[in-house]
Design a protein that fits this description.
Elements (H helix, E strand, L loop, with lengths): L2 H23 L2 H29 L6 H9 L4 H15 L11 H22 L8 H39 L7 H26 L7 H28 L4 H4 L3 H47 L5
Helix pairs in contact: 1-10, 2-5, 2-6, 2-10, 3-4, 3-6, 4-10, 5-6, 6-7, 7-8, 8-10
Subcellular location: Cell membrane
Keywords: Cell membrane, Membrane, Transmembrane, Transmembrane helix
Membrane topology: Multi-pass membrane protein
C-alpha cells in the first residue's frame, strides 16, 4: 500500500516534466495570451449572435439563460463585470444581426476558433493542412453549431422547471430528488463544455485522433479549470486588488487574467494528449522490435 503512491509519482513525474517541456517549447504562455485576447474580443459578438439566433428560432426568452449558462461557472469577480456589460449589449435594440451583419459577426467570433486551432496544432505537432478559406469556413461552422447548441440547452434550462413542476404534480414523491434535479440541470454546462472541447481536439488541428485519445486532456482541462475557478474566486475575494493597479480597467484585466489561465489549461490538456500519444507510439515500436527479434532468433531443433 505504501509503494503505490510512490509508483504513481514515479509514473506521473516524467509525464509531467514532458508536458511542461512541450508547453514551454511551443511558447504556451504566448499562445495562451493570444487565445485569451481572441476570446475576449469574440465573446460579445458571439452572445449577440446567439441571442439573435434564439429570437429567430422563437426562443428569445432563453437569452438570459444563455448568459447564465456561460458565466455561472466563472468566478464571481470575473463574471460580474462582464455579465453586466453583456446585459447592456443584449438589451440594445439592433436590426439585421442575422441578415446584414451575420457574416461580420461570424468572422470576428471565428477568429477565436482560429486561435484555438493554432494552439492545438502546435501542441499536437500537427498544424492543419486546410486552405485558409476552408479553415475559416470550418471555424464559422463551429461558431454556428456552438450557438445552436447553447440555444437548445438554454431552452431546456428554461423549460425544465415547468416540466419538473408538472412531473411532481403527478408524482409528489419526486420532490425528494429536487436537489439532485438542480445539480443535473446545471451539470449540463459541464457536459456542453466537455463536448465542445472534445470536438475542438478532434477537428481543429491537423491529423486524426480518436475520442479516447483526447479524453485525458479534456478531463484534465475541465477538472482543473473548475477547481481553479473556485480558487481564483477566493483569491479575488481576499487577496487581489486589481483596482489599485488598473483603476477603471480592473474588471477587464481580471477577465484577461482568468481567460489567460483558462487558455493555458486548454493547451496543457492538448500537451498531455500529445505526450501520452508519443509514449504509446514508443511502446508500440518497442513491441514491434521485440516481436521481430523473437521471430528472427534461431529456434532450438
Amino acid at each position: 500500500m505504501i509503494s503505490r503512491p510512490r509508483d504513481l509519482i514515479r509514473k506521473l513525474a516524467p509525464l509531467t516534466f514532458d508536458v511542461l517541456r512541450r508547453f514551454e517549447s511551443h511558447y504556451g504562455w504566448a499562445i495562451a495570451a493570444h487565445v485569451a485576447m481572441s476570446a475576449l474580443l469574440a465573446i460579445f459578438p458571439f452572445l449577440i449572435f446567439v441571442t439573435a439566433l434564439a429570437a429567430f428560432l422563437g426562443a428569445g426568452d432563453a437569452s438570459a439563460s444563455i448568459v447564465h449558462l456561460i458565466f455561472d461557472t466563472w468566478p464571481a469577480g470575473v463574471a460580474g463585470p462582464l455579465a453586466s456589460e453583456v446585459d447592456k449589449v443584449l438589451t440594445t435594440p439592433r436590426g439585421g444581426v442575422l441578415t446584414v451583419g451575420v457574416l461580420l459577426t461570424l468572422w470576428v467570433t471565428s477568429s477565436a476558433v482560429e486561435s484555438l486551432r493554432i494552439a492545438l496544432g502546435r501542441a499536437y505537432d500537427s498544424p492543419t493542412s486546410k486552405p485558409v478559406w476552408l479553415s475559416r469556413l470550418q471555424s464559422m461552422w463551429f461558431v454556428a453549431l456552438g450557438a445552436l447548441g447553447l440555444v437548445v440547452v438554454a431552452v431546456f434550462i428554461v423549460l425544465w422547471p415547468i416540466v419538473w413542476k408538472f412531473a411532481t404534480d403527478w408524482l409528489p414523491g419526486l420532490w425528494a430528488f429536487e436537489l439532485l434535479s438542480d445539480v443535473a440541470r446545471y451539470a449540463l454546462t459541464v457536459v456542453v463544455l466537455g463536448a465542445a472541447l472534445t470536438a475542438a481536439h478532434l477537428w481543429l488541428p491537423g491529423g486524426r485522433r480518436k475520442v479516447r485519445a483526447v479524453l485525458p486532456g479534456v478531463v484534465f482541462t475541465i477538472v482543473v479549470w473548475l477547481a481553479g475557478a473556485t480558487l481564483f474566486s477566493v483569491y479575488l475575494a481576499h487577496f487581489a486588488n486589481y483596482a489599485s493597479t488598473y483603476a477603471g480597467l480592473a474588471g477587464v484585466m481580471t477577465a484577461i487574467v482568468f481567460l489567460n489561465a483558462s487558455a493555458a489549461l486548454f493547451i496543457l490538456g492538448a500537451e498531455i494528449n500529445a505526450a501520452l500519444a508519443a509514449r504509446r507510439k514508443v511502446k508500440a515500436e518497442e513491441g514491434a522490435t521485440q516481436a521481430l527479434a523473437s521471430l528472427s532468433a534461431p529456434h532450438p531443433a
